[in-house]
Write a structure and sequence with these properties.
eight-stranded mixed sheet
């Protein structure tokens, strides 16, 4: 056997080293699951992996695809206690808002548009002697989905458009419970701001999308409720009745202005008498009210 000379020995050592290095690189690439940033993103980036693995014959891993979840179905109608009516849920309406004034002495309420017979009826005027007014949510042909002034809060039903007279308002009222304040808009313009007293934590002011469903001048402008009450189509979620009423909240004045800015009411929104007077002379019955 011929012995290798010094030069051949060095060449063999170099070749062996290259073989070992190549084998290690192949093994590292086979064990590496993704490119470095792929683990952080939760997805493979095949272009990065190809760039790293190009000198070898290691097969690319399959590209994973994130499939967006299917949209949740629209909430189904919910039965209204004591009625055949199945309710929808009101949402904020765009400006200008459409208001429906009931024409006759009663109006039929329907769970879905196009029904032959009503599931319930409301009387006009209301039990308080006020004209019956709804806030329109949407229109489908001769049918209107409207928000009702009843429990549960934010209940909607369908009515025949021929049973109401329609008008519009560009006003809307936004109540912030966090800042205990009210802002009135006409379109995009702020026309009024005022501090409020809000519900006590044990009798909180209900949050949600509502509307002014009535306004009255009080018999004693210096009394507990000030000169005006503007009732909101929202009901206490704690008090099923209050005094001689049904637990419906209102925006009204006060004879204790030092409590404005506090959380002290039974759910109503109190304001200074000058502010409630200005509010009553600014907005229309049917004006949307957003409480958050």
């Amino acid at each position: 056997m011929r012995r290798a000379g010094p030069g051949r020995s060095a060449l063999i050592v170099v070749l062996a080293a290259l073989v070992v290095t190549t084998a290690g690189l192949v093994g590292w690439l086979q064990l590496r699951p993704t490119a470095p940033h792929a683990a952080a993103s939760g997805r493979f980036d095949p272009t990065v992996l190809r760039a790293v693995a190009a000198p070898t014959t290691v097969p690319e891993p399959p590209v994973t695809t994130t499939v967006a979840p299917a949209p949740e179905p629209a909430p189904s109608l919910v039965e209204v206690p004591g009625s055949k009516l199945r309710r929808g849920v009101a949402h904020p309406v765009a400006s200008p808002a459409t208001i429906a004034d009931v024409k006759g002495s009663k109006i039929g309420l329907y769970s879905t548009p196009g029904q032959a017979e009503a599931d319930d009826t409301f009387s006009n005027p209301t039990w308080e002697g006020l004209p019956l007014v709804f806030l329109v949510q949407q229109r489908q042909g001769d049918w209107l989905e409207v928000q009702l002034n009843t429990r549960p809060n934010q209940t909607t039903a369908w009515i025949r458009a021929s049973d109401v007279a329609l008008r519009q308002t560009t006003h809307r009222i936004v109540v912030s419970l966090a800042s205990r304040s009210m802002t009135v808009y006409d379109g995009d313009s702020v026309v009024m701001q005022a501090p409020l007293a809000i519900g006590d934590p044990t009798t909180p002011t209900p949050r949600g999308s509502y509307y002014i469903d009535g306004a009255v001048r009080t018999p004693d402008p210096t009394g507990v409720y000030g000169p005006y009450q503007l009732s909101v189509a929202a009901f206490s979620e704690v008090l099923m009745s209050f005094g001689s009423g049904v637990g419906q909240i209102a925006m009204h004045g006060t004879n204790a202005p030092s409590l404005i800015g506090s959380a002290v009411s039974n759910g109503c929104l109190r304001m200074n008498n000058a502010d409630v007077t200005r509010l009553a002379n600014t907005v229309e019955i049917g004006t949307p009210v957003q409480i958050s």
